[in-house]
Specification:
single chain; 313 residues; alpha/beta; Rossmann fold; Alpha-Beta Plaits; 2 domains; six-stranded mixed β-sheet; 10 helices; globular; binds adenosine-5'-triphosphate; binds magnesium ion
């Protein structure tokens, strides 16, 4: 039997003056499903999740959570969702345990749950640290802990790892992966990070300008491109310009002058690789380094929009 979706978003539109922040989004999330809303700055991600969280309201369309709407069932919905905003402000005068206890008291939860959550988000050693003294990663884990206090059926996380270094990011991922295994929580996560969506989510919706560009499981999104590989390379020579790569029917080299890095798509790398090395040789260029990797969501995003998901990449 197919279960009812926990969250259903139907043709939602939300504008700010002349900006259509969310322009007709529809999607649903089932129990236990981890969904990513992936998109660049200004895509409409925060606006969309804040409407699910009941912080903003749609101009048009419906949002149904566990069969209910914010309009009719505010209290019931609050009981089943946990959320962490894009920027969370804490009281610097409280320590980790006191902060969690304060939030726990809003839900009428006791000390046991606070202890469980401290454990879950790996903040045991920091339980007595003032929030002001936490690292960025620890603050994010505290925000995640607050979101998890009431054992939510639906967890909403708005860019939970933006600004974190790779190690801190992985710590957040491992907590979420554990949650996926052990609890029946559903997750709606917004992110700029392709890898985050790939690592955590069963279903990915790529949005830009408030609209869906493409959606599906990771496999579905990459299936049309299956088999394609990307070759990235650097050269020994310095100050190379794109003109250094004359037109060639087999290779369409994209050369990034700032980074002095090139890439190209390979369909059959076994036969194309020797030809490419030969081509470089005839261009009078010497390979320094190369890497062949599978097509990623970022490559797909570039195909869809012509740009990287991070403007500075
Ligand atoms: N309160 C507001 N007033 C006016 N415009 C707004 C408001 N909130 C959002 N917008 C605009 O709506 C669009 C979507 O913004 P939103 O914050 O939802 O994007 P986002 O995908 O979360 O971006 P980011 O990745 O930078 O967090 C942007 O063009 C933004 O400038
Ligand atoms: Mg945002």
């Amino acid at each position: 039997m197919v279960s009812q979706p926990l969250v259903e978003v139907v043709d939602v539109i939300k504008s700010f003056k002349d900006v259509k922040a969310v322009n007709g989004l529809s999607f649903s999330v089932r129990e236990g499903q981890f969904l990513a809303l992936l998109g660049p700055n200004g895509a409409g991600k925060t606006t969309m999740v804040e409407m699910i969280e009941g912080i903003q309201f749609p101009d048009k369309g419906d949002i149904i959570i566990d069969g209910k709407t914010w309009h009719n069932h505010e209290e019931e919905i609050h009981r089943i969702i946990g959320l962490s905003l894009q920027e969370t402000r804490f009281t610097d005068k409280l320590n980790v345990r006191e902060t969690l206890s304060l939030f726990a008291s809003f839900y009428g939860l006791g000390r046991d749950r606070v202890e469980e959550v401290i454990n879950l988000v790996n903040l045991d050693e920091k339980r007595k640290s003032y929030v002001v003294n936490l690292s960025g990663g620890q603050r994010q884990r505290l925000a995640l802990g607050i979101a998890l206090l009431n054992n939510p059926k639906i967890l909403l996380l708005d860019e939970p790892t933006t600004g974190l270094d790779p190690t801190a990011r992985r710590e957040v991922w491992s907590i979420l992966k554990k949650l996926k295994k052990e609890a029946n929580t559903s997750l709606i996560l917004t992110t700029h990070y392709m890898e985050e969506a790939e690592q955590l989510c069963d279903y990915i919706i790529i949005i830009d300008h408030g609209k869906i560009l493409k959606e599906g499981t990771l496999d579905q999104l990459l299936i049309t491109e299956r088999g394609k590989k990307i070759l990235e390379f650097t050269l020994k020579e310095e100050g190379i310009k794109p003109e250094a790569f004359p037109d060639n029917n087999s290779f369409n080299v994209q050369w990034d002058m700032d980074k002095q890095k090139g890439n190209l798509e390979l369909i059959k790398f076994e036969s194309q690789l020797p030809k490419f090395l030969n081509y470089l040789h005839t261009c009078g260029l010497t390979l320094e380094n190369m890497e062949i990797r599978k097509l990623s969501l970022d490559d797909l995003f570039i195909d869809l929009t012509g740009r990287h998901i991070h403007e500075n990449e």
